[in-house]
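Possible regression after last week's pipeline update?

I re-ran a chain I had predicted before the update to compare outputs. Posting the input and the new output here so someone can diff against the archived version. Not blocking, just want to make sure nothing changed silently.
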Amino acid sequence: MKKLAIVTTHPIQYYAPWFKLLSERNKIEVKVFYTWSQASEEVKDKTFGKTIKWDIPLLEGYTYEFINNISEDPGTHHKNGIDCPQLNDKISTWQPDAILIFGWYLKSHLSAMKHFKGKTPVWFRGDSTLLDDSPGLKQVLRKYYLTYIYRYIDKAFYVGSQNKAYFKSVGVKDSQLVLAPHAIDNARFNDSETNNYEALALDWRNELGYTPDDLVVLFAGKFESKKQPDFLLNAVQKANLSRKTPLKLLLVGHGPLEDELVTLSENDSNIKIIPFQNQSKMPILYRLGNVFCLPSKGPGETWGLAVNEAMASSRPVIVSNKVGCASDVIQSKENGYVFNYDNENELINIFNEILISELKIMGEQAQRNIAQWNFTKIVESLEGEF
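New output (post-update):
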């Protein structure tokens, strides 16, 4: 059986399930090498301002090893945050037929790419886009450097059209590109006989003081500048100046803008803020809203997997054109809306247009659409390259 080594930093809910699926299908042998040993049980998220321990299992059903990270400031926030001197030897000892690496900028990941190039096929998965590029010397120099970096890979597994365009811009050839679409565990967010999330969400909405007639816009994520929750709040407040029935805005999370958001909303009964919710609550959380909004301006909203989650929860979405998934998963007015990230009037017009009855139909379509973006397609892409 062919062997695939996977190099990534730590267990997360977007990858661990398909590592498990790869192993369960038993077509290739898989071992995951985690390089952020300090995050084996919990993650200290510097932007979120919290230590996060996921409440769903992420280390079950596949073989893995945590490699000792000797960095004095461990983490993914800088290139030297992942420094694992034993990594290359550990991989070599396992003798894989290919190595799939996430994230080239981390010290030990780049070292592995360089070390194994020409010895073992080096595969790469990332989700960068060109959406944040701006003309100038900095862009030219970055492109030159990235072209050098990607010479060390044999294949790139791209997640969507914006990511594919990025890889091609830095010299990766069509023959090296394989689609492995960004996905979430759709089944975990779908209603079922055992998980009546809609009923649980209705109870939660009642607790929050919402009525069935309230049109609730939901934002869930880090309260940080790149995601623009303050922009969203202002747009909702302005839209409500002309609406007969006001929109309700529910902001869920923590982050640097939290105090500012509290101040902006303190005299507005249409806006509520509640804390970060862990993974087991998310299928219910997305159903608190009639529509999910991710108004990011970037830089770095490379995909926006929360959009997948909201759609799998049968909710339509409103996203900015700086969200990487927008061009792949959103069909305007069928399952959501896309607006220009800095055009407040455009977002206000969307808010003035939406109706609860139409959003329900759009949400059902969103769920059907996002089902096509799934873990099975990722693992089939990997298996197909052996």
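Follow-up from reviewer: compared with the archived run. The chain has a mean pLDDT of 95. Marking as no regression found.
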